[in-house]
Amino acid sequence: MSTRQIKQNEAFSCANWGGAFLDAGQKPNNPSLEYTLHMICPTPLSTPFTAADLSHAGLPADYTIPTKINIVNFRKELRHHPNGALVQWALAGFEHGFRIGYNGSRDGEAHRNLKSAEQYPQVLANNIAAELQEGRLFGPIDNPIAHAKISPIGVVPKPHSDKFRTINHLSYPFGTSINDGMTDGTLYTQYDRLDSAANWIRYFGKGCYLAKLDIESAFRNLPVHPLDVPLQYIQFEGKAYADLCLVFGSRSSRNIQCGRWSRRLDRTQQLWSTPRKSLSRRLPGRRSFPENMRRSSVSHGIAHALPRPSRQT
């Protein structure tokens, strides 16, 4: 039996789960939330970039950080967060771009794209056009900077969708890739288990509601500092592009995003009792998610800092 099969069997073992369940009424905890409250900033603190930094990255002098985050609202919503250092790290990242924690060679190199880029050229072209429109790519560039690292790109189908996601193969070439140059010590991610969600359901009791925050294109909402932009160049149909946000395929993307902000932000930590159509009001007569934990959730700050989608009729 393979290691993967063993883990799957363990995950679906009633005996394994039963030991993790709490008695009814016993207040659970949230591992991912508690980890965020005490975690160390995963990458270096971002500092304001200079004109020289922009020139080094091959970016124009009037370049501005591409982010949809309202910094003022974000700072306001997290002003009471107990991990002040983490909040300042996040604020600096949104203002100046996040450092990705790369410590390897910064010599330029270029690699051929993945086979999927050749199989679905129109899909990739459409994805690139969409990212250019969102301001998350810069280009096209005829003559990229000499020290640009141009990694392979391709596309993969999104689950339960007819759309394709662009992926950056930052693990190529093996042993000397960009991902190989990132420090392991900063790349830890803490997720909540399903039994944690089950314990909250048992705690709130029958009739409670569940809420889950999902930020669209979460990685792509996190800008990269100009000093690290040369590590994220791509090429397509003879043109180069500088990728200005975290990419799918970078070892640091999930880590930055999860403390870093959305997927672990916090998957099961949103389990306070609320009406189905409103997460801002609590349901009268039912136990709600502890106020101090709700307010200390980074996801709570994110929800108030992102622009609200327009309601379609």
Which descriptors would you attach to this protein?
single chain, 313 residues, alpha+beta, two-stranded parallel ribbon, 12 helices, 32% helix, globular
Short structural summary:
The chain has 313 residues and is an alpha+beta fold. It is built from twelve helices and seven strands.
Descriptive report:
The chain has 313 residues and is α+β, with helices and mostly antiparallel strands. It has one domain. Helix content is 32%, strand content 9%. The strands form 3 sheets. It has a 3-stranded antiparallel beta sheet, covered by helices on one side. The protein has a two-stranded parallel ribbon with strand order 1-3. A two-stranded antiparallel ribbon has the order 4-5. Strand 4 and strand 5 form a beta hairpin. Helix 5 runs antiparallel to helix 12. The N terminus is likely disordered.
Structural class: alpha+beta
Annotation, overall tally of beta strands: 7
> Kindly state the mean pLDDT as a whole number?
77
Number of domains: 1
Low-confidence stretches: 1-19, 259-296
Number of helices: 12
Shape: globular
How are the strands of the biggest sheet laid out side by side? Answer: 2-7-6
Sheet having the most strands: 3 strands, antiparallel
Layout of strands and helices, then pairs:
Layout: H1 3-11, H2 14-18, H3 31-38, H4 51-57, H5 71-77, H6 84-96, E1 109-110, H7 115-119, H8 121-134, E2 137-141, E3 149-150, E4 153-157, E5 164-168, H9 194-204, E6 233-236, E7 239-243, H10 251-257, H11 291-295, H12 298-305
Parallel strand pairs: 1-3
Antiparallel strand pairs: 2-7, 4-5, 6-7
Helix pairs in contact: 5-12
